[in-house]
Amino acid sequence: MTARAFVPGHVTGFFSVHPDDDPVVAGSRGAGLALSDGVTVGVEPVADPSGRRLLLNGRAVEMPAVTGVLDRLGADARVTAETELPISAGFGVSGACALGTALALDAETAGGHTDRELVAVAHASEVEAGTGLGDVVGQARGGMPIRLEPGAPPQGYLDGLPARPGVEYITFGGLDTAEVIGGDTEALSRAGEAALETLHDSPTVETFVGASRRFAREARLTTPDVETAIEDVQAAGGEAAMAMLGQTVFALDDGLSRAGYDARSCRVTAGATLLEA
Amino acid sequence: MTARAFVPGHVTGFFSVHPDDDPVVAGSRGAGLALSDGVTVGVEPVADPSGRRLLLNGRAVEMPAVTGVLDRLGADARVTAETELPISAGFGVSGACALGTALALDAETAGGHTDRELVAVAHASEVEAGTGLGDVVGQARGGMPIRLEPGAPPQGYLDGLPARPGVEYITFGGLDTAEVIGGDTEALSRAGEAALETLHDSPTVETFVGASRRFAREARLTTPDVETAIEDVQAAGGEAAMAMLGQTVFALDDGLSRAGYDARSCRVTAGATLLEA
Questions:
Q1: CA distance readout (Å), B89 to A244, B10, B245, B269
Q2: For A157, phi and psi rounded to 5 degrees?
Q3: Average pLDDT over every residue of B59-88
Q4: Which residues in chain A touch residue B107, judged by CB atoms under 8 angstroms apart?
């Protein structure tokens, strides 16, 4: 019997980049959605580093964020992650694997860490890996997280929208997170800060989606497939935007299927949690 | 169709009292459990204050914490609360009714408040009513909340234990929260601060229950029924403590039923959330 954790998928609608030499402090401001489609992570301690493995949907993969968690917790484990989410398409799968590994490993080894300590370990590992800046803290919190201050606790500070809408999504392909957040992010961050200001003035679900849509265009991240899908959803009376960072469109309620797309449906949900043994 | 919210029950194991003239800042430090047995709250806006009603399990009751939420949000509503939890026995039912009213009312009226704003409204109303100091923030967070700094956001600051144990509970009667937290709380608070220090040094579920047990005795809050049940659970190899503030014993896993008690069983669960329409 191995300890298991469920970590929701996390879609960021808009963000700004806040680098720092300390990976616990570095991160992003922005807002997103924690999704009931997520990642179930199990760990099984092994005797030494040579036994470390990460199986993602049954396939051995390398994920530096997970390696970072094992290093920081000083443990060796075989990690098994199962998910229905698309990979590298803006759903925070690497953050989910990192956070799920931290939670399950602590339970399995009676590690005696608090929630905030484990979130900081996963966040710092994800930031160092260059695969995300805000997914882990959003996934830990759940709901519709608003990242007011970047980084993990105690520096990071989140609020949220209380709404729990249905969400549909469709993916046309990946985007390289490391390339985008490692490049020139000045214009992107300016657009992200403006979006956060807009949401602060009117904290509603509709404002969030509208601000996210504007952000993706201002940051020049949309692709033709993404633009078309967003326009189709709006033409059918719905609300949609782009997931950061993937060629992925998310819509409120049944916005995508009403516009004729074969979309996957889920809900906004609670934060990451250990599962019953 | 009226908006509805689910708010977990919340059992505090130990606490210290931190008064302040501002009810958002006043509160308690301590630690507890958010329980899957909770309160489902529905609201239906009404035309004027004369239509305000609170029905708790079908019976009209007065609950100043709920009245305070309506006043602060400037709204009039009929509030319906359903729960399997014992009332006035240390499960935070009044806090749950206050927080559930805030969440559901905001959804029903498209009020545009954030999570933290609604938590602050419910917390301040509960503090002013004198019926609780830390339940609302624990119920909003979920899991096994550790209240590191008193009060609602942004002053209040919580961490938590990642464990999600099964919990059993039994109630022998109520305690008057207002009387205890309105009286001389110096010795109680000293014991609560010591318990928090103990949990900080070793943040595990077992430490939490042990520190809670010691706290209840040091604060001279246990009754003969409570003492007997705690001792019986320990004699049967389990872990139990007293819920603040009620003549209620909670135990990990099946600790009470293994000791021969007819206890109710639930789990540690996530924080308060709006329910699907």
A1: 47, 11, 6, 19
A2: -145, 125
A3: 96
A4: 162-163
Average pLDDT over residues A70-83: 97
> B264 or A131: which carries more pLDDT confidence?
B264
User: Are A183 and A215 contacting, i.e. CB atoms less than 8 angstroms apart?
Assistant: no
B42: pLDDT confidence band, cut at 50, 70 and 90? very high
Q: Where do the structural domains in chain B lie, given as residue ranges?
A: 1-277
Say whether B162 and A203 touch across the interface (CB within 8 A). Answer: no
Quick one: pLDDT band at residue B225, thresholds 50, 70, 90? very high
pLDDT value for A277: 65
CA distances, A261 to each of A64, A181, A216, A249 (Å): 34, 30, 21, 11
Pick the residue from chain A with its C-alpha nearest to B155: A157
User: What is the average pLDDT value for chain A, to the nearest integer?
Assistant: 95
- Residue A142 and residue B202: Cβ atoms within 8 Å? no
Helix A115-129, helix A64-73: angle, nearest 10: 140
Is A110 an interface residue toward B (CB < 8 Å)? Answer: yes
Helix axes A205-218, A186-201, angle to 10 degrees: 160
Residue B269: the pLDDT is 97
Whether residues A162 and B270 touch (CB distance < 8 A) is answered with no
Cβ-nearest to A160 among B114, B159, B275: B114
B197: amino acid identity, one letter: E
pLDDT, chain B, mean: 95
* CA distances from residue A187 to A97, A130, A180, B5 in whole angstroms, order as listed: 30, 19, 12, 40
Read off the pLDDT band of B155 (50, 70, 90): confident
Judged by CB atoms closer than 8 Å, whether chains meet at B163 and A115 is answered as no
Residue of A109, A114, A148 to mutate, testing the B interface (most B Cβ within 10 Å of its Cβ)? A114
Q: CB neighbours of A34 closer than 8 A, spacing ≥ 6?
A: A8, A9, A10, A138, A139, A141, A142, A143, A144, A145, A268, A269, A270, A271
**A153 touching B, CB under 8 A?**
yes
C-beta separation of B34 from B138 below 8 A: yes
Strand B157-161 relative to strand B59-60, pairing: unpaired
pLDDT at A78: 97
A160 CA to chain B: closest CA distance, Å? 5
Q: Does A143 touch chain B (CB under 8 A)?
A: yes
The yes-or-no verdict on residue B181 having pLDDT over 80 is: no
What φ, ψ does residue A23 adopt, rounded to 5°?
-65, -15
Q: Which residues of B201-232 are buried (b: 16+ CB within 10 A; e: fewer)?
A: eebebebbbbbbbbbbbbbebbeeebeebbeb
- pLDDT tens digit sequence for A207-244: 999 999 999 999 999 999 999 999 999 999 999 999 99
**What are the Cα distances from residue B168, in Å, to A54, A274, B34, B174, B254?**
37, 19, 13, 17, 6
Tell me the Cα Rg of chain B.
18
Q: How many beta-carbon contacts under 8 Å exist across A and B? A: 80
CATH architecture for residues B1-277: 2-Layer Sandwich (3.30)
Whether B86 and chain A come into contact, CB under 8 Å, resolves to no
